[in-house]
Amino acid sequence: MPRHLTKEEVVRIVGRVNDSRATAILRTGASAEELEEAVALARRRGDTATTAHCLFALHDARWLPGSAAGRLDIVDEIIPLAADTDDLDLQAEAHLLRAAARIELGDHRGRGDLTEYCHMAERSGHARGRWKALSRHATVALIDGDVDLAADLSAEAASIGRRIGQPDWNRVADGQLWEVLRFRGERDRYAGLGHSGPLLASWPPWTALGAVDAGDADAAARTMAGFHVDRGFLPGQRTNAEPWSMAIVAEAVAVAGTRQQREEMYRRLRPLAGMHVVTGGCASYSGTFDRYLGLLADALEDHALAERHHTDAIALHEHLGAARWLALSMRDRQRSSGRAGAARPAVLRREGDTWRPPFGG
Q1: How far apart are the C-alpha atoms of 295 and 336, rounded to whole Å?
Q2: From CA 89, how far away is CA 338, in angstroms rounded?
Q3: Which of 31, 234, 290, 342 is the most buried (most CB within 10 A)?
Q4: Rounded-to-integer distance, Cα 270 and Cα 292, Å
Q5: pLDDT in tens, 186-216
Q6: The pTM is what?
Q7: Long-range contacts of range 237-246, CB-CB < 8 Å, 24 or more positions apart?
Q8: How far apart are CA 339 and CA 231, in angstroms?
């Protein structure tokens, strides 16, 4: 951020000393309360650019699953502030964050925001802007259902990102690759085609879903045996679950997990019904949480509940214009509907020494 706040003021607000730019101080480790104080101070000084940067930091501090509506309020305040500066990167990032929040909420205008961000990044004229534009154009293609175009754009972005040393190029490319391979039925190739080395073979949900795509359900079940749903794809347990990994864990336990895993993931995802799975700043798109809730309900043998979730997913995907996801949800609902029609009247089910009612009953 511009040096409109003195270092002493930033240290007082954030509570620690750092010789890097004040933006880095504000955007790493400060609490929401400290950042609200920073916003208030910048406003009192009438400093437009600094206020925008502080609001960006506040946005990031509040970035948790299900937070899109609150974040959108912050972004809507940032956009006119950024427009009053000559910082083109600041203006572009504001559009990116609005796109992410709107897409999470299922607002079809988010796609337009994301396309506009791509144009703004492209106009920057530097290689990093080109990487940003290509990688997010790949996400637009994933939403639109053009899997081949998404694959081509993502690969081109990855080539640029690798060449210029973009820190997160491989994470973005691998997130998009996962969705491309999903629709090609080739997730068993993920570890071999991805860009993050042995990491991609180390997380059981990836491996299990790859085994399912390869037609080996037994291997998938063995892979998920003993898996703890709090285990993220990076070493250590997740402190703040992020939507993409939550969705992958949900799908993996739905097809190859235990009843306990399925019930726990259903409980965690239930508050996110009606929202879409967006990775970070539109690094990828993975459908709506309602689809994963439907998969879990089906696995828990509550097919009528699953059918309702898939019906909701169909409406959400259709409204956003997510064509391939719409087709997938229609297939999911047809499967649930057939199972619901064939199901017997609900009875207690015995599991060891315990009698359980049907899920949702």
Answers
A1: 9
A2: 51
A3: 290
A4: 10
A5: 999 999 999 999 999 999 999 999 999 999 9
A6: 0.87
A7: 240/64, 241/65, 241/268, 242/65, 242/279, 242/280, 243/65, 243/104, 243/272, 243/277, 243/278, 243/279, 243/286, 243/289, 244/175, 244/277, 244/279, 244/284, 244/286, 245/205, 246/65, 246/272, 246/277
A8: 32
